[in-house]
Write a structure and sequence with these properties.
The protein is an alpha/beta fold. It has a 9-stranded mixed sheet with strand order 5-4-1-6-11-8-12-10-9. Strands 2-3 form a two-stranded antiparallel sheet. Strands 7-13 form a two-stranded antiparallel sheet. The longest helix has 18 residues. The N and C termini lie far apart (57 Å). Helix 3 packs antiparallel against helix 4 and helix 8 crosses helix 9. A hairpin with a 5-residue loop joins strand 9 and strand 10. The protein has 2 domains: 257 residues, Spore Coat Polysaccharide Biosynthesis Protein SpsA, Chain A; 37 residues, no CATH class. The model has no long low-confidence stretch (mean pLDDT 90). Helix content is 35%, strand content 22%. Its EC number is 2.7.7.9. Keywords: Nucleotidyltransferase, Transferase. It catalyses: alpha-D-glucose 1-phosphate + UTP + H(+) = UDP-alpha-D-glucose + diphosphate.
């Protein structure tokens, strides 16, 4: 029988070193890099809140203090903006502090996503919870997390978000073996493999950075040995849960996501994300797209006969 305990808490791992974005991330957390004028991590917290999760635990590390500051009140700045009558910017500054009840715990040393999730055990307790990775942004118009919570309520166990990719991309992700259910967008997961070679992948459905986990995952993580890269992988723990009886918190299901996902995990994808977000902003789109068309046209003209 499915465990219908409500999902009320979100866990956001944010302890990575951000080495792909050095030197920008030497003193600034990768999660604080802006998508136009809002740090990427705020979009993630907003997604959790939109799905009804207003208790958010951030798993941080050294040099991440600015994340805590961002979600706290900034009284001097607020007073200055208020004195100037700049209500629009004042509202924007206060928005992040009023979003959710924020909690923080330090991971200590980067031992992988599974270890980061295990750091949430004391805060989460024996409740199901969501995990949102900061590198993946899900468009607010595509209510993926809400759907995953619905699926958890119906089937119990744990739920992961899945996207279909070209076979040559599977080796960069966790990949699943799946069985259909009566619902078109829901599958039962029978196996999970972390970053398999393309010719050994069980499918071309990859796990993206959204999970709804049963609390049983904590006991499994505690006994999960380091896997690929010497890190404790959440994928390995979920693989164990896929073979665990439902009455012990087992069973893993997947929601097939066909909506809009933005990747901020590497420089090229980050730049694409900024351009996409700017192109849809009412206050920027017209001027930005006009400039972008001119820039691309000039660039194409200048690049004739050369590699772009």
């Amino acid at each position: 029988m499915a465990d219908h305990a409500p999902v009320l808490k979100a866990v956001v791992p944010a302890a990575g070193l951000g080495t792909r974005f050095l030197p920008a991330t030497k003193a600034t957390p990768k999660e604080m890099l802006p998508i136009v004028d809002k740090p990427a991590i705020q979009y993630v917290v907003e997604e959790a809140v939109d799905a009804g999760l207003t208790d958010v635990l951030m798993i941080t590390g050294r040099s991440k203090r600015s994340i805590e500051d961002h979600f706290d009140r900034a009284y001097e700045l607020e007073e200055t903006l208020d004195a100037k009558g700049d209500q629009e910017r004042l509202a924007a500054v206060r928005e992040s502090a009023d979003l959710a009840v924020m909690h923080y715990v330090r991971q200590g040393e980067p031992k992988g996503l599974g270890h980061a999730v295990h750091c949430a055990r004391q805060h989460v307790g024996n409740e199901p919870f969501a995990v949102l990775l900061g590198d993946d942004l899900i468009d607010a118009r595509d209510e993926l997390l809400k759907r995953m919570i619905e699926v958890r309520g119906r089937y119990g166990g744990s739920v992961v978000a899945l996207m279909e990719v070209d076979p040559d991309q599977v080796s960069a992700y966790g990949v699943v073996s799946i069985e259909d259910t009566a619902e078109d967008d829901v599958v039962k997961i029978t196996d999970l493999v972390e970053k398999p070679p393309a010719d050994e992948a069980p499918s071309n459905w990859i796990i993206i950075g959204r999970y709804v986990c049963d609390a049983a995952v904590f006991d499994v993580l505690e006994s999960t040995p380091p896997g690929r890269g010497g890190e404790i992988q959440l994928t390995d723990a979920l693989r164990t849960l896929a073979d665990t009886p439902a009455e012990q918190g087992g069973g893993v299901y997947g929601v097939k996501f066909r909506g809009r996902r933005y990747d901020t995990g590497n420089k090229l994808e980050y730049l694409r994300t900024v351009v996409q977000f700017a192109s849809e902003r009412e206050d920027l789109a017209e001027d930005f797209l006009g400039w972008l068309r001119e820039f691309v046209a000039a660039h194409d003209g200048a690049g004739d006969g050369k590699d772009a």
